[in-house]
UniProtKB/TrEMBL annotation:
Residues 233-328, 554-682 form the SSD domain. Its main location: membrane. Keywords: Cell membrane, Membrane, Transmembrane, Transmembrane helix. PANTHER family: MEMBRANE PROTEIN MJ1562-RELATED, MEMBRANE PROTEIN YDGH-RELATED. It holds the Pfam family MMPL. It comes from the Bacteria. The chain crosses the membrane at residues 12-31, 167-190, 197-219, 231-253, 274-295, 307-328, 367-387, 527-544, 551-575, 587-608, 620-641, 647-667. The keyword Membrane applies. This is MMPL family transporter. SUPFAM superfamilies: Multidrug efflux transporter AcrB transmembrane domain. It is found in: Cell membrane. It is a multi-pass membrane protein. Belongs to the resistance-nodulation-cell division (RND) (TC 2.A.6) family. MmpL subfamily.
Amino acid sequence: MAAGRSRWTATLVAVAVVLGWLVVGGIAGPYSGKLGEVATNDNASFLPADAEATRAQDLAGGFVDRESTPALVVYERTSGITPADQQRIQAEAARFAQVPGVIGPLPPPIVSQDKQAVQVVVPIDSAEGEQIRTVVDELRNIAGPDRDGLTVDVAGPAGLLGDLIEVFSAIDGPLLLVTLVVVLIILLIVYRSPVLWIFPLLAAGMSYSLAAVVVYFLADNDVVKLNGQAQGILTVLVFGAGTDYALLLIARYREELHRHERPWDAMKAAWKGAAPAIIASGATVIVSLLCLLLSSLNSNRALGPVSAVGIAATLLVMLTFLPALLVLGGRWAFWPRRPRHDDADPRVEHGIWGRIAGFVARRARTVWIVTAVVLAALAIGVTQLGATTLGQTQLFTQRTDSVAGQEVIDRHFPAGTGSPATVFTQQAAAQRVAQVAQGVEGVASVVPLGQRGENAPPDPNAPPKVVDGRVQLNVTLADPPDSNGAEQTIRDLREAVHAVPGADAVVGGFTAINVDTADASVRDRNVIIPVVLLVIAVILALLLRALVAPVLLIATVVLSFLATLGLCALLFKYVFDFPGVDQSFPLFAFVFLVALGIDYNIFLMSRVREESVRRGTRAGVLAGLAVTGGVITSAGIVLAATFSALAVLPLVVLVELGVAVAVGVLLDTIVVRSLLVPALAYDIGPKVWWPSRLSRSHREGDRAGAGVDRA
């Protein structure tokens, strides 16, 4: 009778939890499709306040009535621009000026020296924000398609931004759909059940809805600056990590169903056994991601909290909503392979991993030495990584309109035309600064901003405009504004004009923003990576109550990270034919690979410690590997596959990050966690738990394990 009441109580609690979460999901669900409304993709706003380009941007506001972002409409006829072409261009330029958001009047069209191209500079009000895409689309509609041998493209900073916004606007739909399909397929393969896959997928969707509503209000109230990159990573991170946690809990629940007759009792035991590892894993990822708050770039500082919110929401859902669903599902949820109450040893269901554990026991030292050498050899490929700033024509995996237009500009104009660097200097030193700037290699021309305004044609006889005792010089670069050559010119230009006495010169513009962003990325990498390693070491030491094991785990994950970078460098260069990686790539790859990679070692070693208390260290290593091998490998495959979904977005930086996380996670789960870590722990024996009491415990399992090793 008491058992019946207890069963009904457990069922009512589970029903109440499920219904409560469904209400939350109904409220939060719509916000998952509204994140794009509160996202921003203005690179300049991501710069630190003390960056030189930021100070230049502040000064520029005094020289214009409205700040603008230029679109460059480029016409090309390789046989030469005809009078009819010129008439068409004049007519369309007049229509460009009438588009809402365009700042008129427009400067006269610029004809290239070879007479094969014409460029129309169309300043767009920067206040348009995300709506700049609408303005760019209208310019493209007016220009129309190529015809009669005359090509037309809309490029420049505004054209590039419009293309980027279009790419990120696809995140809410295609990326989410691809992620869902990938997770569904893998769950069907893992569970081979027409029912069980529903529970983790439903819980992951609930996690994403909860994370989305929190992030939406944080971004809407300017607590964080959400951008398209963070939005895309949030999607794959929540579904990937959520499915990982679900796999771990479900695997433990299945074990306990063999030991307990009632699902409620089995879930209590499973939750008690799996929750500490899941919480420690989630906490490690959250704290590692929050280390991005130390970044000097607003874009990085936003990615940290946004991703941390996603992991926190996932932890909450997976430890409450999912257990309730599983209790209600009971044994029939596993149909047709329903676990029976038979007190079977959980290792019986993991035959292949039992054999792998036996192999590790027989060849422990050989296994860890060989795997370490292989990973170290892969790490040599890091020398081929080539971190740089990707140019506009290198940013996309496909040829966009802005890329095609930039290629035309590169062929026929000084590449910096339409997106000049700006130098702000004291009026008394302006002439000297202009002379010095003109002498810098890579500078095509230097023209002061005249009284007639920023949209007037250059007039060397017009008096310069003076604001608060300063003059603005527009410096056209010889190289494309987003190229490495242009960035070096900006560095040389700054060094030259800063040396002019009394000038107090400040250099800004599109290229200067890229330079300051790259410098900030290097600084962030050097500061944040050591902090993340320290934080993870502390968490592992608290979880495992040891010092040797945490050092061992961190060393293996760092080795895996370097091997991943080396392998990815070779893949990017020789398989994908990418031009390089962005300056931010090493930091993002590190944070995600180390934070997520350490997860699998936490899952393994927390179970190894649990088994070591009962069996002895060496026997505990083998039991832990045998029991967790299948579920951790499945979790790694899920996470790798979900991050691979980033490849549906045609941006090189996100494709590279997706590939890097996928490759790194597979290395962690298949090589590091399956072979390197167990072999090291087995070879070291009880001392791996030093200085805890467990390191001084020599049980029968340790002696037996040592005997297997000697054999």
